[in-house]
Amino acid sequence: MTEHPTRILLVDDQELLRAGFRIILGSQPGIEIVGEASNGSEAVALATTLAPDVICMDVQMPGMDGLEATRRIVADAEVHAAVLILTTFDRDDYLAEALLAGASGFLLKNSSPEELVAAVRVIADGEALLSPAVTRRVIEGFTRQTAAAPDPAAGQAPTPTVRTTGSDYEQLTEREREVLHLVAQGLSNQEIATTLFVGEATVKSHVSKVLQKLALRDRIQAVIYIYEHGLAAPRS
Predict the structure, then answer these.
(1) What whole-number distance in Å separates Cα of residue 102 and Cα of residue 55?
(2) Which of 1, 48, 86, 219 has a 20 to 30 Å separation from 106 between CA atoms?
(3) Which CATH entry fits the domain spanning 132-228: 3.40.630.10, 3.40.1160.10, 3.40.50.1370, 3.40.50.2300?
(4) pLDDT, tens digit, for every residue of 112-127?
(5) Whole-prediction pTM value?
């Protein structure tokens, strides 16, 4: 029985870049380019009609941009595509907005062809693409945004508010909380296994249970959860 190929939708307003991505990805076994769009509106429409597995999404495009398109695609219960943000802008605000919009990964356009192919395969497998370096930037960026938010009462920037964690976090075991905090630092399953002196399969099981108990989609949401509940500070 032949395995279903990974269906890719390319979204970029520059035709030349789309052609380059099409050549790189289309030449790979198990990957099929099913469509292309030049703006966010087209991407939203094609995500419904073409049923792609992964959408390679540009950020800055005329009309609807990639961030808004990502929000709409992720919010559509009939669409099951994961979004990989591709951009030339190495900016923390784009990174944070893309992840909050529901993107499963973030890659700069100057990445190597091998990195692009690997990113698509990782996301197609249901994983999130977020390196430790990017994770630190996400947490640091969120911290700066909160610290800079004006205080309506005093007209000043307050200390970031720590939210109560609620029963979801409380139902985690001590080891699951440990694993959650390590995931939120950007560590891979293998790195967590080394840190905790356990097997990688054990870590994978813990991660799965944590995501399930907290109703989180992936590791990226775990990072956001940790920050939003005031459970972690940026690493030095």
Answers:
(1) 12
(2) 48
(3) 3.40.50.2300
(4) 899 899 889 988 887 7
(5) 0.71
